[in-house]
Amino acid sequence: MPLTGRILDNALDAVGNTPLIRLDKIAEREGLKCNLLGKVEYMSAGGSVKDRIAKRMVEAAEKEGKLIPGKSVVIEPTSGNTGIGLAMACAIKGYSVIITLPDKMSLEKEASLRALGAEVVRTPTAAAWDSPESHIGVAQRLRDSIPNAIILDQYRNVNNPLAHEYTTGPEIIEAVTSSNGSPRPSSGKVDVFVGGAGTGGTVTGISRAIKKTHNPAATVVAVDPKGSILAIPESLNDENRGGFYVVEGIGYDFIPDVLDRKDIDAWIKTGDEEAFVAARSLMREEGLLVGGSSGSALAGALKWLKSDEGKDISCTVGANVVVLLPDGIRNYMSKPWFLKMTMEAEQSTLAKQIKSILGPS
Ligand code: PMP
Questions:
Q1: Boundaries of CATH 3.40.50.1100 in the chain?
Q2: Which segments constitute the Tryptophan synthase beta chain-like PALP domain (predicted)?
Q3: What mean pLDDT, rounded, does the chain reach?
Q4: What Å distances lie between residue 82 and 56, 101, 268, 269, 349, CA to CA?
Q5: 49-151 CATH fold
Q6: 103: alpha, beta or left, given left = phi > 0 and alpha = psi -120 to 50?
Q7: Distance from the CA of 225 to the center of ligand 1, in angstroms?
Q8: Centre of ligand 1 from the C-alpha of residue 352, in Å
Q9: Most buried pick, 5, 37, 287, 325, via CB within 10 A?
């Protein structure tokens, strides 16, 4: 439902309902004949795709009588965005929040969490998921000691994939099908969906929405960073296995329950550098202020479209390839990869011209 033209009850009503935007300049530069479309999730109220699951997990727990306003303490291990969604929902509804956040996650995410009233506990990024020191282990220890504490658990909660099966997926399908009749060629359906995997809730839920109700023949491509172990076949994970990567929000050292790899047709591995190059092209060419994992998703989509499996689609006029762009640059403005990218702008011809007119500053 459009968000304008009516009064919303609170910010949770402005979660989701994000635009599907053509990435025409990138498609043209890459020589693609298909439509390349970005689902732009930073336009959701809390700034990411994870607002949707936070809202659904809180509302489901309320229906089950598991949350008591003024008393309950919601604890969640997260790479940040689920935490921001939960902190937003809990600020509105009157629950306390503790977020356990690996060290590598940005200061901006911690600042947003604290702005929404959450407590933040940092944990060592290198701690294995099942160690007591990891973000998951620390959340469990706090839950066991704090009265009225609850972990909604995005890694196991069915409301994570369901939020995408019932909202993100149907929004994509509606946007694609209701654009039939526009002057731009279209197959009338979602032919390919590409998304990054962290918990895997996004790719699993959207795959189910597309394949169950819309186009069983669609191809769903999941993107996993080098260093993570989510991809299959297993051999794909050999490069930099267990190694560090900078991109936030995707990849894990265990397979979350909510990731159903049967729903995924192909896996693509991406590295940091190609992700940041792709994020920059989304900003510079398409004017979209996306975060790093959006770059991973686009880089993965382009790799798949150039692969043997994808090249027919890339040459098909009107085929619809949807790429999910999970969050925005607001989350990463102090990160070295972003600062490097913005400082490079100083080297532009226009910057040199400005210097020659005004002299060095
Ligand atoms: N990108 C970012 C920035 C995220 O925060 C997340 C959530 N961890 C994802 C991608 C992946 O989403 P999901 O957990 O649904 O796989």
A1: 11-43+168-325, 49-151
A2: 13-326
A3: 96
A4: 11, 11, 24, 23, 41
A5: Rossmann fold (3.40.50)
A6: alpha
A7: 12
A8: 39
A9: 325
* pLDDT cut 90: percent of the chain above it: 94
- Residue 346 above 70 pLDDT? no
Structure-token match 């336009």, residue found: 43
Pocket lining: 16 vs ligand 1, CB cutoff 6 Å: no
Question: What is the per-residue pLDDT for 41?
Answer: 99
Tens-digit pLDDT profile for residues 101-117: 999 999 999 999 999 99
CA distance 327 to 62: 27
Crossing angle for the helix pair 201-213 and 169-178, nearest 10 degrees? 50
Give this prediction's pTM. 0.97
Q: Using most ligand atoms within 8 A of CB, pick from 135, 167, 199, 324 the residue to mutate for ligand 1.
A: 199
Q: How far is the CA of 228 from the centre of ligand 1 (A)?
A: 13
> How many residues are recorded in the chain?
361
Taking residues 37-46, what's their average pLDDT? 98
CATH topology for the 11-43+168-325 domain: Rossmann fold (3.40.50)
> What residues are paired with 36 via a beta bridge?
321
Instruction: Output the six-digit token pair for 61.
Output: 């727990």
CA of 347 to the centre of ligand 1 (A): 33
Distance separating alpha carbons of residues 74 and 113, to the nearest angstrom: 13
Question: Catalytic positions, please?
Answer: 50
Nearest-angstrom CA–CA distance, 28 and 184 = 14
Specify the residue with its C-alpha closest to ligand 1, atom 9.
249
Q: Hey, whose CA ends up nearest to atom 11 of ligand 1?
A: 198
Nearest residue (by CA) to ligand 1, atom 2, is 249
